[in-house]
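Here is one such protein, fold included:

. . .
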Amino acid sequence: MIPIEPGDAVMVKINGQTASLRTRRRVKENGPSFIVEKVGAAYLQLGGVTPAVLLASTTTNWVGWLPKKEIIVSRTSI
């Protein structure tokens, strides 16, 4: 994953090898364009040890955590 920081505009694709159904649905329903809110947190509902990214959709009002290993991120401009 490329280095990203809060405030970055990013395009998200699923990692076809590791993405869960939950992640696939979130990206399909709310993406692919997001704003990074937090990076590197270990989100408790993802097991507390899974590095994750808090993303806010630019097309819907969805905000949520996605595991880093399940997504492919590239920077973009909005």
Summary: Strands lie at 9-14, 33-42, 51-57, 63-67, 71-75.
